[in-house]
Amino acid sequence: MAGLAIAAAFFYPSAQTLEAKAAERYPRGALEYLQQHPVTGNFLNEYGWGGYLIWRRGQKAEVFVDGRTDIYEYGGVLADYLHITLLEPDALSLLRKYDIRACLLVRKSPLATMLRALPEWKVGYADELSTVLIVRPDAHGSRSGAGMTLRTITADSSHPPLRTSRKD
Hints:
The protein has about 170 residues and is of the alpha+beta class. The protein has helices at about 1-10, 15-25, 30-35, 50-55, 70-75, 75-85, 90-95, 110-115, and strands spanning about 40-45, 100-105, 120-125, 130-135. It has a four-stranded mixed β-sheet. A hairpin with a 3-residue loop joins strand 3 (about 120-125) and strand 4. It is globular and about 60 Å long.
């Protein structure tokens, strides 16, 4: 029994090792930024980071989506999340629908790239892994690309669309 305890102590990773491994895959730096610079309003996060946010922030964690897919699918939120992150034609209107004021995204994701290009959004934080994008306070009237729409693009009429949208 003592040998098992010694083996477990030797092979069980330390808290420091776990934190270092988590920092390789999860937005630790962005979360520290958000703790120092709280964002008011609704927040969109990467699906794969929702559980991490809950783990790190505990009861005060508010996430748009996490690994509990069935809950989000039943309410329609998962489909909306996918439309937003896949840049479907209704992505910007869905950001407005949910009144998203900030996003925690993979820095090189298509959504992060698009939002950085919109004048209504600013980068609050960025590192190699993640970015926090925030709606500018003065962007109320033109928020989230109002008047701008994403369109399906085709090479020519003989080719199918590159992206299709859901049928309502």
